[in-house]
Amino acid sequence: METEFDALLDALPFPAVLLEQGLPRRYNRRARELLPDCAPGRMPAPLAGVLSACREEGELAGALWLEGRCYGLTLSPAGEGRQLLCLALREEGAALPLDAVATQLRQLLADLHLSTQQLGRVLRPLDDPGADRLYHVLHQGTYRLLRMARHLEAADQLAQGRAGMEPLDLADLCAALAGEAEVLTRGMGIQLEYETPLLTLPVLGSGSLLQMLVLNLLSNAIRGARGGGRVLLRLTRESGRAVITVENSGSCPADLSALFRPGQAAPVPGGGLGLGMLLVERIAALHQGSVLAMDTGAGVRVTAALPLGTVDRDLPLRTPGLEGEGGFSTVLVELSDVLPGHCFDYFDQL
C-alpha cells in the first residue's frame, strides 16, 4: 500500500510533500529535486520559514519564492490527519491585468465627472442636504483614482524588478499604518487591533511597497469584516523572517487560491479590482518572501513572511511617512475602496 502511494505521489506533475502532524513524511521526485535538504521528519528550510506561522490544520493557499522563481502553494487535507503540500511553478512574466485597471479607471472617471457637473446645481442653496453626499462621492472618487494610479505605477515597478531597498523599521511602519487605519475603521463598527512583541524590527526593503503590502492586506480584511467585525494586524519575527499576519472575523472565499490568480473576477465599480492581493504577492516576491492565505473557520488569515536581510547597524532606520505625493494620506488612498464616504469629510475643511 505504501509503495502504491509513493508511486501515485511520484506521478504528480509538480513537487508534492505529504505531511503528518505538520512534518514531512514523503516527498515525490520533483519535490526532492527542488528541495535538496529534504528528509522525512524534518521541514526543509524554505518551507519552515513559510509554514511556521500557520501551524493549525486546515487549507492554505499562497505563493512561495524558491531559487529565484515563484511557486503557487496549496496545502490540503489528505485524510487520517495528513496534509498534501503542492507547489506549482508560476508562468514567467505572467501579466498583471492592467486592462482591468483601465476599465475601472474609466468608470470612476465618468462617475467623478458626473458628480462634478451636479455639484454646482446642488450647492445653491448651500444648506442643500445633497451637497454632503456629492462631496463624498467627489473626494472618495479622487482617492480611488489615486489608488489605481499608484497601483499601476507599482505594477510597472514590480514588472521591471526595480525597487530602492533601504534599512527600515518594520515595527514602526506597521504601528503607524495600524494607528491611522484604526481611527478610520472605528466609525464603521470594526475593531482594528495591532499586536507585536517587538519594539523594533530592522529590515531591508522598499518602504512605499511594504506600506502598500500591509494596507492591501488590511483593505481585504476590512472588506470581509463589514458589519461590526474584527481585524487584527500582527508582526512577529520567526526563523530569520519578518512575519506580517492580518486576519479578520468574517466569511472566507470558496477558493482561497483564486486570491492569487489575476483576472478571476470582473471589476465592480467602487468594489475594487481584485488587484491588491496580486500586488501583495509580487511585492513579497520582490523581497524574496512568500504569502499564504488560510481559512480559520471564523474568517481569513493572510501571512506574509519576508527575509530580514542584513542591516548595517551603523545606518539609520527609516520609517516612511504616511503623507504621499500631493499631500494625500497613503492610508486613505489605499483604503478608499472599503471606507464609507464620511471618512473623507475633513478634507473639505483644510
3D structure, described in words:
- The chain has 350 residues and is an alpha+beta fold.
- It has 2 domains: 2-89, Beta-Lactamase (2-Layer Sandwich); 164-336, 2-Layer Sandwich (Heat Shock Protein 90), CATH 3.30.565.10.
- It is 37% helix and 23% strand.
- It has helices at residues 2-11, 29-34, 45-51, 98-122, 130-159, 170-186, 207-224, 276-286, 330-334, and strands at residues 16-20, 23-27, 60-66, 69-79, 82-89, 166-169, 191-195, 202-205, 230-238, 241-248, 290-295, 300-307.
- The chain has a 10-stranded mixed β-sheet with strand order 2-1-5-4-3-11-12-10-9-7, sandwiched between helices. A two-stranded antiparallel ribbon has the order 6-8.
- α4 runs antiparallel to α5, α6 (170-186) packs parallel to α7 (207-224) and α7 packs antiparallel against α8.
- The longest helix is centred in the middle third of the chain and has 30 residues, at 130-159.
- The radius of gyration is 22 Å and the shape is globular.
- The protein starts with a helix and ends in a 16-residue tail after the last helix.
- The model is unreliable at 264-269 and 346-350 (pLDDT under 50).
